[in-house]
Each structure stands twice: as C-alpha cells, then as structure tokens.
Amino acid sequence: VTGAAGRVGKELVARVAAAKCFDVVRCATRGNADYVKSLGADEAVLFDLTDEATWRPALENVTHIFSSTQDAYIKQHMDFAKVLKEEYSGQIKHVVRISCFGAETNTNSYDPATHVSRAGAEIPLMLQHYWWSEECLIEALGKDKVTSVRGNFYMNHLLKNELESIKTKGSFESPLGACKNSFVACNDMGEAAAVIFQEGVERHGNKFYDITGPSPTSMGDVAAILTDALKTDVAKEVIPELHGKTIEYKEQDPAQFEKDFGPTRAAFFEYLQNGFYSRCSQDFYNLTGHRATSYFEYLTTPGAAGDTGLAELFSAQGALFTKGEDLFKDLASVAK
After folding, report:
1. Which of 52, 59, 181, 208 is deepest in the core (most CB within 10 A)?
2. Which of 46, 50, 8 lies closest to 27, judged by CA?
3. b vs e for 160-181, b when ≥16 Cβ sit within 10 Å of the residue's Cβ?
4. Among candidates 110, 154, 73, 122, which has minimal Cα distance to 270?
5. Sign of torsion, CA 214 219 221 223?
6. Is this prediction's pTM over 0.90?
7. Is 217 helix (H, G, I), strand (E, B) or coil?
8. In this structure, are residues 310 and 300 in contact, taking their beta carbons and an 8 Å threshold?
9. What is the pLDDT of residues 196-220, one digit of tens each?
10. First to last CA, the chain
C-alpha cells in the first residue's frame, strides 16, 4: 500500500486488514510505521517515490499494489511503472490505482488539445497526467491487471490552505464561485478500493470507476455544511475553539489564486468552475451497494481508520500546498 498514511490509504489499510483478504498487508511509507500498524498493517517498510533505492525492497514478494501518488511526482511514478514492467510483471497480479477522471483515452476519447469550455485551449495538464498515471501501469502490466478508482476532488481538500482563516476570521476563500461540484469523501475512495481488492482482479481487472459525492455542492454550500458540522459534539471534541461558529465563503479572484499556486493548478481549477465535475456517478453504489457519503456525514462520522472528516480537515493530512509555492512549475517538461 503506497500512500498508506494518507487520506485514502489509511481507509484502505484499515478495511483490507480487517477483511483479512491478504496474508500480509505491507505499508510503504516515508515514516509513519507506528500509525499504519495501528490500522492493522502487518508490515511497514520505507518507501519514497523520489528514491529508487527504496523501491525494490518494498516490492519483495508483493503480488498486489495500491498505487497512490501526489500530483507533482508523475515522472517518478512513470519510472516506477517501468521497473514494474521490466522486473515484476510476472509477480504482480493486480494494481488498483487512485486517479481522477477527465482526460482518459481508453474508456473515453478525450482529445488533450480540446478544452471542455474554452476554445483553443488544451485539457488541463494535471488531468492529462492523471491519465498518464493509469496508462503507464496498463503498458507495464497489461490492462487486465489494472483497475482505476477515478475520484472527483476530495471533500475538505480545497479548505486545507484556508484553515488559519477559518480559525481566525470564520471564513475561507476560493475562486470556484457558485459552480457546484460533486466532491468525494476520501473514505469512499478507500472503501471502493477495498471492495475491489476483496472481490479480486478476475472481477475488476480492466475496470475504471468514477467515484463522486452523492450531490454537487458549491463552496457556499460547503460553508453552510461545515457550519452545521461545527454545531455537533464531534466538533466540540475535535476543534473546540470553533464549536458553534458560523463559517462564511468569500469568492476569490482567480488571478490571485493563480499568483498563490501557479498556472498549472489554476488551469485545473477552471474545470471546477465550468461544470465538468458537477456530475454524480453511480459507480460507488454499484461497487458497495450503498450511496456515496455526503459532506455532513463525512465530517461527523468516523471512517474505518477511526477518525472523522472534521479531524482530517484540521490535521496535516492532505496539506500539500503552500501559498506562494508552485509545486507544478516544472511539470510541463515531463514527457511520456
């Protein structure tokens, strides 16, 4: 399990460990061994996608891989896939990849040169890279050994850079405006992946699932739902200083957002403003037999890993971006 201590990985670890569907659950992590073992992992090994020396020890005797990579490391992920092809193609039986829908050319025929709402523009680079992250695994192992769980943007993700403002001002900013998007609960992504592993590659190989929330919400809706969640006893325990507080949404100037995080991330956010990510998918229901988790449910209900979405929101999990730093400034030079 790569990304084992992350927002999706932790849920996957807890679920497959409880289901006992593998002889050994090995978590590949950069330094969270005690935490992942508390979730039920049998082993924890050092793994760093930027350090190839850690790859082969982590892969020893591995037959199944849960693949989760931060967006900035697409080149390293593709290099990792090449190693799988050259050295482990006979050993690996199944890879479940965490990804995002929007630029794939296997289940759909998106043209990377054709933007959904702006003439003469390409599909945002990050979306193309999400497809590359699947495509390289298909090329490495064959399509019948690969399943992808393609999620919408994660609930809470867009608030991670606004926590200080939420705490001190009772408000957050985002450039999304009134557009509604079907943000997905991280726990649902982990549950979907766990079901896929439990039911096996025979059923889910060469399958690609779009996982979303049960209804689209605007950032104004997010503020209202977060306000309701802060009225609960869960909030009193997790973030007592905000218990009972009202949170407001303030629309941010897109140009300022681009200055804060760079043009690559800003281009992706345009797809969160034009309705592309508004649709809701039935795939989670078809995998699990129940509907996807609402935002209020996610915030106030513990997942299999034991924490609520409120706890996740105010933790370091998923805090990937810093205002003033462009993590993706070099991604345009990455080639397949």
Report:
1. 181
2. 46
3. bbbbeebeeeeebbbbbeebbb
4. 122
5. positive
6. yes
7. strand
8. yes
9. 999 999 999 999 999 999 999 999 9
10. 24
